[in-house]
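Changelog-adjacent note: as of this version, every example in the card shows the full chain rather than a window. The one below runs 290 residues end to end.
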Amino acid sequence: MGEYRQILFDVADGVATITLNRPDKMNAFTGTMMQEMCDAFDRTDADDAIRAVIVTGHGSRAFCAGADLTPEDGKQVFASGDTVSDLSDPRVRDSGGLLTLRIYRSKKPVIGAINGAAVGIGATMQLPMDIRLASTTARFGFVFARRGIVPEAASSWFLPRIVGLPQALEWCITGRVFDAAEALRGGLVRSLHAPEDLLPAARALAREIADNTSAVCVAMTRAMLWHNPQFDHPMFAHQVDSRAIYTLSRGSDAKEGIASFLEKRTPRYPARVSSDMPPFYPWWEEPGWE
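Full-length structure tokens:
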């Protein structure tokens, strides 16, 4: 994809920043924005120099104030506008879910810097991000029941896993907008920051990852924590853990991790996500892997 129209994409010192860029529309979500964000995550996965991704919104008013129900590009925000008789038809799939599933598949850790209003898809798109920080001025709302629809973007899967079922139910069935303090109490965000301190805090967290960890091990750890809790028995997680420990402990990054610890220096991990993931990754996509 060429130059982006509705997001900004910047890479500096191993950290990519994706900025929703429709400030005149409070960064409202469109089909074009979805496609551009998915493309940006394809780029971050493919670039071994990128160690972490930050997602934020342009301006101080909004992270993303929900879907643009009358998008200027004419593209439908939810499912296709076509009438279909088969609900398994790909045209039925909502674009928010296409985005969240792409973020879920990211090989790089994703940090949400929620700088303002985050309502509807603005709230649900952040759920597959690994760490969420918010401005003290941010507001959140899973407002779907107040719009005559239901939660989208696979949020019925993500939200209870993050905040627990009782909190997810309350926020979704009331559809009310709540402030950053309540988001913190409910476990939706990790920390609150003054608006001017939000991006520096997100960048500091990204730097902590980039400067100290193995890219391959972070990608594996992210996948294990997102996927292994779905197993019915801990034995399946034990099998994944064992294969990962066996494989990675014999690799170059483990040697460097031990050497840098003993030599009391910053590690320089040589393994690359593009070429050095364990051979059984992605295990959850393989039938009968166990």
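Structural remarks: The two ends are 38 Å apart (CA to CA).
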